[in-house]
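Record type: ASSEMBLY
Status: queued
Input:
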Amino acid sequence: MENRHAVTDRDVVKHLIKRLARIDASDGWRADLNPAQRAALDYLSRANRFSRQPSHLASYLGSTRGTVSQTLKSLAAKGYVEAVTPGSDKRTIAYQLTESGRKLATTSDLLSESLDQLSAGSLRDIATQLRHVLGAAIHTNRQKPFGLCKDCTYFQPKNGNGHCRLLNEELGVFERDQICHEQLPRSAGASATSA
Amino acid sequence: MENRHAVTDRDVVKHLIKRLARIDASDGWRADLNPAQRAALDYLSRANRFSRQPSHLASYLGSTRGTVSQTLKSLAAKGYVEAVTPGSDKRTIAYQLTESGRKLATTSDLLSESLDQLSAGSLRDIATQLRHVLGAAIHTNRQKPFGLCKDCTYFQPKNGNGHCRLLNEELGVFERDQICHEQLPRSAGASATSA
DNA sequence: CGATATAGAAGCGAGTCGAAACTATTGCAA
DNA sequence: TTGCAATAGTTTCGACTCGCTTCTATATCG
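Status: finished
Output:
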């Protein structure tokens, strides 16, 4: 009623996210990486052993196999990742961080520093709200959630560790907090095998 | 205490923002634009008449004059923006949207659609929280806020319209909701002329 | 078997990116 | 007034992203 040109909360949020992402991207040129390489490094540092193939990264980034293939190649040339050939399926290849890659992936970035200036309560609130946004975006875009192993329908506590009922694999403690391309959020409508 | 590998809220928020930005970027290839061109188009659609020069866009994006110069050139080649030469200072140039550019800038994107699935209350909460995050990031990165004209220290209501006390210019109604490279948030520590 | 699907990679062309060099102005100061 | 540093924009460079198409190997299913 006040004026026809008023900015809606939706647009405010949209611009806030986009601007934040832009600033973070411009910060992504630290060291000798670019934002895409940094994203790949970051993904590999969080992905569990079932989720480290080029196609998984492409799916996570909403990109293509061809594109991430090149990004991983340049990361390998710089010595931050290395290819490992897994077992059964000879078409696949997996990438893992090298020691220097691991070190680089854990260095703090601008976004972390900015977020550190907020209170614990604020962070928890933002996390809750943004989860809804990301959930909506993922649903709209028909993407996979790539959530944490421990929040998965197929995750089953076992002794101190865990067990994946989908892949029928034993899981170490640290793997509970890694992301998985097969993850199906427990809270969501879990209609079993679709993945 | 529960486990040493637990993911902090800070990292959750960081990953949520980054993933959201990635998905939005992959969506930014609609029409015949790429994400950078889309960002430039979006900026120009919201910038007031004092803020449409390449250097302003570079500052907003945390990029360089050289880079945005090329982006604007390709946007001009596609007919979405056109250069206009302003008055006094012959070094400067300003870009404005063409009719087709304006049309393209107002088409809804993935992020808008996702946000539309949230309640008004949620959107208002997220906006409040993200403003803090962006504020911190801008401060850390020593960037300008690029806030709305009406939220500026130099903004003065005048009749139904407004007046800028910094540039000593009259402002139309619609200009109150545009972003300005000179904006100094009213709430922040406004120590006058620094800009 | 063979058809088809899938994983990864290579090549293409447009374009981004920071960095540095370059041009044209402007403003300031000796 | 002349000189010179600061500023705005552009150009060029090399590395790289990106979607796209094609290619090669393997898998899978009928």
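Annotation: Chain B touches chain A through 66 residues (CB under 8 Å).
Annotation: DSSP finds seven helices and five strands in chain B.
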